Amino acid sequence: MSTLQFLGATGTVTGSKYLLEHDGFRMLVDCGLFQGLKELRLRNWSPPPFDPGTLNLVLLTHAHLDHSGYLPVLYRNGYSGEIVTTPASRDLCGIILPDSGHIQEEDARFANRKGYSKHKPALPLYTEDDARRVLPRIRCVEFDTPREVGPGITVTFRAAGHIVGAAMIEVRLRAKDGGDKVIVFSGDLGRPQQPILPDPESMPPCDHLLLESTYGNRDHPKDDAGARLGQIVNETIRRGGSVLIPAFAVGRTQHLMFLLRALRADGTIPSDVPIFVDSPMAMEANRIVMRHPEAQDAEMREANANGGDVLGMRDVRFATTSIESKALNDIAYPAIIISASGMCEGGRILHHLAYKLPDHRTTVLFVGFQAMGTRGRALQDGREFVRMYGREIPVKARIETLDGLSAHADRGEILSWLQAASTRPGRVHLVHGEPGARDALAASIRERFGLAVNCPHYLDTVEL
After folding, report:
1. CA 360 → CA 180, 235, 368, distances in Å?
2. DSSP per-residue string spanning 388-442
3. Using CA atoms, how far apart are residues 324 and 330, in angstroms rounded to an integer?
4. How many beta carbons lie within 10 A of that of residue 448, not counting itself?
5. For residue 268, with 0-12 CB atoms within 10 Å meaning exposed, 13-18 middle and 19 or more buried, which class applies?
6. Are 311 and 197 in contact (CB under 8 A)?
7. Cβ neighbours of residue 99 under 8 Å, at least 6 residues apart?
8. What one-character DSSP code corresponds to residue 63?
9. pLDDT class of 280 with cuts at 50, 70, 90
10. Greatest CA span in the chain, whole angstroms?
């Protein structure tokens, strides 16, 4: 018998985890952290709802923390097997997971020093050393290369176009009676015709499709995201302020660098306004993007082969040390500062926000989805104060959102991806979306395709 249990990303966009069992072989697809609302974050600290010691394998769609960030906890709780993912995702995990542990240690130390945590002492969920112990267990599989990973179980990773190395995973289960069942995990489905990355591959024929629904109730703006970015930058410069962009170090930062290079090249924004990337991890992510041509689109590969500076790295200043990062807050002239994390839940962006949010000349520009319960969502929702470092920070800065840079497919793009498939899935399970987005997409899929759609709850199990 084969079963699938939903252990995360149900009614929320974070915490992706799916437990697949086939004839006694137990496999976890994705192993992400819950982020945002406190009730969700507390799940990270609770004992896992399954015994990690009984797992045979972990498959990873991509390296973002809401898909990979629980791995150190999994190993600490008894898992001793391997993780299978793409080469680029392996390399990204090598920087993302240790950085996550380091940030948690730093946040705990800061909370203990300032005394604003109710926990005495405040502790990290895991440490940098915990994260580094995971990395030797990661094994790679190339795109579009079937691999048998267990008795009667074959997996194929197919390009998802979300970040470098991101994949949808096709899992083929061979039954003892000779019949096959195919389950496709979309992971985070990217968008067509985006720079740097390949378009998402076509959906393979499948019996069950686990489909993300982050933007299931709306479409991204069709106007030119680069032009709008240039407009926001120029408006802020005229006020004498700086543009502060919370952006994930992997994926979004590279997209921003691509666009800013183009805007400088054609004279849309002044070339003398400095661009700072305040993220050592983003520097490493840039290098990983460049050394994985198999995870790039054709234009990116061609430009690299011809020596082009596609990301504009020669025109960007990187803040590598904490001293250089703090010095950015002393800049009196307009600048563009890109810093992680993208939802303002940790990292160097918090120091910049604490310093610049009270300044009416500042623009805080969001370029990605902000989950419920995050500081990013609070700012988007117009909160007059946000709490950071144990104090309330007044919000005088302008808050802008540029949805056109999202790396997630929107409602229309998801429906078009389904429409283009050679065959329809037998059943669709909508995950990785807040209730409004998920339910709206479910209605659209039922109406347009007549498919059976399941909106699972946390810990639900289905027979396959």
Report:
1. 60, 13, 22
2. ETTEEEE--SEEEE-GGG-SS-BHHHHHHHHHHSSS--SEEEEESS-HHHHHHHH
3. 10
4. 11
5. middle
6. no
7. 128, 249, 281
8. -
9. confident
10. 72
Question: What is the average pLDDT across 23-38?
Answer: 95
Residues of the chain with CATH 3.60.15.10: 2-218+407-463
For the entire predicted model, the pTM comes to: 0.89
What does the alpha-carbon distance between residue 405 and residue 397 come to, in Å, rounded to a whole number? 21
Per-residue tokens: 49? 């709802």
Classify domain 2-218+407-463 at the CATH superfamily level.
Ribonuclease Z/Hydroxyacylglutathione hydrolase-like (3.60.15.10)
Do the Cβ atoms of 190 and 161 come closer than 8 Å? yes
Alpha-carbon distance of 187 to 69, in angstroms, equals 15
DSSP H or E run through 156: strand 153-159
State the residue for tokens 């170090």.
Answer: 249
CA 107 to chain centre: 21
Highest mean pLDDT among 122-126, 269-273, 424-428: 424-428
Confidence at residue 20, expressed as pLDDT on a 0 to 100 scale: 98
Q: Which of the four CATH numbers 3.40.640.10, 3.40.50.10890, 3.30.1050.10, 3.30.565.10 does domain 225-405 have? A: 3.40.50.10890
Quote the tokens at residue 240.
Answer: 């004498």
Residues 6+ apart with CB under 8 A from 171: 20, 27, 29, 59, 153, 154, 155, 182, 183, 184, 185
Query: What DSSP designation does 330 have?
Result: G
Nearest to 246 by CA among 331, 363, 165, 330: 363
* pLDDT at residue 117 tops 70: no
In this predicted structure, what is the pLDDT of residue 249? 87
Reported as a single tens digit per residue, the pLDDT across 215-231 is: 999 999 888 889 999 99
Find the distance separating the first CA and the last CA of the chain, reported in whole Å.
8
